[in-house]
Amino acid sequence: MSNLALPKPAASNTGLGAALRHARYILSDNAVTGFAFGLFVLIVLAALIGPYIVPYDPLASDTSVALKPPSWAHWFGTDQLGRDVFSRVIVATRLDFFIAIASVALVFLMGGLAGVAAGFFGGWTDRIVGRIADTIMAFPLFVLAMGIVAALGNTVENIILATAIVNFPLYARVARSEANIRRDAGFVQAARLSGNGEMRILLAQVLPNIMPIMMVQMSLTMGYAILNAAGLSFIGLGVRPPTAEWGIMVAEGAAFMVSGEWWIAFFPGIALMIAVFCFNLLGDGMRDIVDPQRRT
Amino acid sequence: MIGVIFKRLLVAIPSLIGVVIVTFLLTRALPGDPAAYFAGPAATKEAVEQIRSQLGLDKPLPEQFVRYVADLAQGNLGSSLTTGQPVAAEIRARLPASAELTLLGLIVAVVIAVPLGILAATKPNSLIDHACRVVSTAGVSLPVFFTGLILVYVFYYLLGWSPPPLGRLDVFSSPPPPLTGFYLIDSLLAGQGGTFLAALNQLILPALTLAIFSLAPIARMTRASMLAVLSSDFVRTARASGLSPYTVTVTYAFRNAMLPVVTTLGMVFSFLLGANVLVEKVFAWPGIGSFAVEALIASDFAPVQGFVLTMAVMYVALNLLIDILYTLIDPRVRIEA
């Protein structure tokens, strides 16, 4: 019978070693997720060190080389002011990535907490949060984001806020239903019995338990957040020229598309597409791991 | 049946009230003093005060809200600051252009996505299944304004098949006599074949852009729900009874699989109405989206507010329509109600 004994818990079962092994297991299980993760690392690298490694100053114009197609000197060509498109695309990663991360973090704080409270407490809290979510859902999301940025002022902060607000219902609903099925779970009752206050149970017991599903939600909405922000700056809201940002770069290159200078809008557009594609794949992969039943 | 529709209408009312409140609050959140803003930079203090009382901004907030709702009830959305024209009239004149584009885009998307999803579900892991997966993942990743620009570059600049992306008709054609405001329908009604072709030529690229964008969620949902239905017991029974694969797939499975797809259409419309704004900007389409964008750039708030309100009301109405469609497809909903 001795061989039925539980294996001795190895030291590496906790901490960094376990996390790394788990990550490798996930990545080797699904090649597409692994690929998306590789892309994600590249994007993070570009956001972190991009501005220090690009060959040209993203804002320096040199009209003697304006509108040149891609070449060895300028990999992605130059725009109408002679700025290097490659440098601008790489430098823009930081801003776009920051907008997406900030808006997702903000909506997690607003929508996630409101949803958990709604599902856990029920009653009036539930009704108020539900009503707010319904009202936001009554608008086409991009249109509401336009309205919010127009009303609050044309700044990057408001783009982040608007993107967070239009995603509020998604987060609130997921958090609500997840918290609702756990409001009387065994571990919650145990915590209650040992004298914890409701607020403490909510934050210390229920919230950590729904974190995996919220993380999936966050990576699924990252792509949408980037698209939303780029769309807003494409129509002239938020980021202003000459700042390097993908949406605004596509907008600047749009006029040259009809005269054949495709590279000005093409490369920032492709960068945008790759980023969104990467986040969507990553989100799908994470969802498959956390919640295999919802696989489509 | 009528009772069900009536009940759905009642459910839409709180949404509409919410929409009106939010649009009202958005105007009050305008940075700075709206009165000074409307008066212009050169206005004196008295002029600002006069405009303030004229706009009713010196009244308490609830009273302003009542006034706003009363204006809305009369179809008054205020006037544009730059053109001085009433916003409601402008939106009414431009709405058909946007509606024609959006509807055509949706029709193209449904016509491609639904068969694609069904085929992918009936033959899992086949070539068409992989194609469906690629299309639905790539479709949601493509920024809609970028797709539009690529199509313009390929079909206008490289191939020369399409007219320049500048509005609903080329300079040589004149618009057909307005009946519905939809150029395609109006030109057919008036028997102007040339105008019909010209309008269609202009419409193809922007409609295709919107279709590529909305294809993905529809195809994905059709595939997923067909897969679920095809593995259910009643389909197995139908197959075992010797019904032809066509009857099983189309008559038995498809009707049941359509329910989640119809629900997805609500979300697709939300995306579509937003994407419409971007596509209109790319193709210089004279719809309400480009109207709002022009106003946004000029910091002219009344048109933006009117636009947001119109879009939201249309979206609520569309969701209502989808709910009614749902009861038509699914008899169970009728019995439960």
Please provide a written account of the structure.
The complex is a heterodimer of chains A (296) and B (337). Chain A is mostly helical and 296 residues long. Chain A has helices at 15-29, 31-53, 85-121, 123-137, 141-152, 156-180, 186-193, 198-234, 246-257, 263-290. The two termini of chain A are 44 Å apart. Chain B has 337 residues and is mostly helical. Chain B has helices spanning 2-28, 34-39, 45-55, 61-73, 87-122, 127-141, 144-158, 183-189, 193-230, 233-240, 245-282, 288-297, 301-329, 331-336. Chains A and B meet through helix 4, helix 5, helix 8, helix 9 and helix 10 of A and helix 1, helix 6, helix 7, helix 9 and helix 11 of B.
What characteristics describe this protein?
heterodimer; A: 296 residues; mainly alpha; B: 337 residues; globular
Q: Gist?
A:
The complex is a heterodimer of chains A (296) and B (337). By secondary structure, chain A is mainly alpha-helical.
